[in-house]
Design goal:
Elements lengths: L4 H6 L1 E12 L2 E11 L2 E5 L7 H16 L11 E3 L2 E3 L7 H5 L7 E5 L7 H15 L4 E5 L6 H11 L4 E5 L5 H11 L6 E3 L1 H4 L6 H4 L5 E5 L6 H11 L3 E4 L5 H13 L31 E3 L7 H6 L4 H17 L1
Parallel strand pairs: 5-6, 6-7, 7-8, 8-9, 9-10, 10-11
Antiparallel strand pairs: 1-2, 2-3, 4-12
Helix pairs in contact: 2-12, 5-6, 9-10
Length: 327
């Protein structure tokens, strides 16, 4: 998909949205929104990502905003989602989960810098108490553990009946080894960073280093590319997000609705609940544990209200120019 830079600059809006709870030491989420002929779309790679990595996100944004989508006839109109729990203290867990009504699954962030395993145990234990025995708990370490730390932590958290462990270690080789070490426990290993930040997103599947792939539409270059990865990898998938606005989440919802054969796991697309404000009067919030598969109508008033500062807007537009040149 090729779109002239001048056309993008004419329809670009940079916003800065406050979070309800600090997430990986971030208190606001910045995003560049574009109004394309097919609808609103989002370009929001994290600020620390270099231009080459960000270019994949822009490719996804252009694909979603400038191409009409057709869902399979059997596609669901709503997608089941999990609650996402940042690395909060145990006494703050209930308040965060209350923002995700009806969600039967919770993804718990663990291995936060400056915290101990005991903090993770307390957080996951509280989630289990609140969910009861039928609720599903998955943990996400974002690749922060080494092999021995991962094995020790998984043993410590296994008593809470984990659905799976997401990216316990950073490398594919480490994932393959930890998968072998904990296989007897019956706890699957999911890969996220080893998919979306890899030159070859299917390498982790070929190496038999994961049981589940976590897919995010923006970092993978768009819905079509993500579906190609699903077909090639041949593994169950979880469609997730990167604390997007509701616009970015709608891209994920369309991806989730397009997965052949449907989904076995709840999706990480309920994170609008972690935003204190959004860019639409009808945000893609979880209702009865589900979100709608729909395009988002952006509110001009909210765009103005949450417009980023002059300096941050200039930074994002300069980034857009550089990244567009790479495409």
């Amino acid at each position: 998909m090729t779109v002239a830079l001048s056309e993008l600059l004419d329809v670009a809006h940079v916003v800065s949205l406050p979070l309800t709870t600090s997430f990986r030491r971030v208190d606001t989420r910045e995003a560049l929104l574009l109004e394309g002929p097919a609808g609103w779309t989002e370009f929001s790679p994290f600020v620390e990502y270099d231009d080459a990595e960000a270019a994949v996100w822009l490719r996804a944004a252009l694909d979603f905003g400038w191409r009409e989508l057709s869902l399979p006839p059997s596609a669901p109109q709503r997608i089941r989602v999990n609650a996402t729990l940042p690395a909060v203290d145990a006494d703050a867990v209930a308040a965060v989960l209350a923002r995700f009504p009806g969600c039967r699954t919770v993804k718990v962030k663990v291995a936060e810098a400056g915290q101990e395993l005991s903090d993770d145990v307390a957080r996951v234990s509280t989630v289990r108490d609140l969910l009861g025995p039928d609720g599903r708990i998955r943990i996400d370490a974002n690749g922060a553990w080494n092999l021995d730390e991962a094995e020790h932590a998984i043993h410590a958290l296994a008593e809470f009946d984990l659905e799976y462990v997401e990216q316990p270690c950073a490398t594919i080789d480490e994932l393959a080894q930890i998968r072998k070490r904990v296989k007897y426990m019956g706890i699957p290993i999911a890969a996220d960073e080893s998919v979306r930040k890899a030159e070859d997103p299917v390498a982790v599947a070929r190496a038999k280093a994961a049981d589940i792939l976590v897919l995010k539409a923006q970092p993978l270059g768009g819905i079509e590319r993500a579906l190609e990865i699903v077909e090639e990898a041949g593994l169950p998938v979880v469609v997730s997000s990167a604390i997007d606005t509701s616009v970015g989440l709608s891209m994920g919802a369309y991806l989730a609705a397009s997965i052949p054969g449907g989904l076995s796991y709840d999706c990480g697309l309920g994170t609008a609940a972690l935003l204190a404000s959004d860019v639409t009067d009808a945000p893609l919030l979880p209702v009865d544990g589900q979100v709608d598969v729909r395009r988002i109508d952006v509110s001009p008033d909210l765009l103005n209200q949450h417009a980023a500062s002059v300096e941050r807007t200039a930074w994002w537009l300069a980034r857009l120019r550089r990244v567009h040149a790479l495409l």
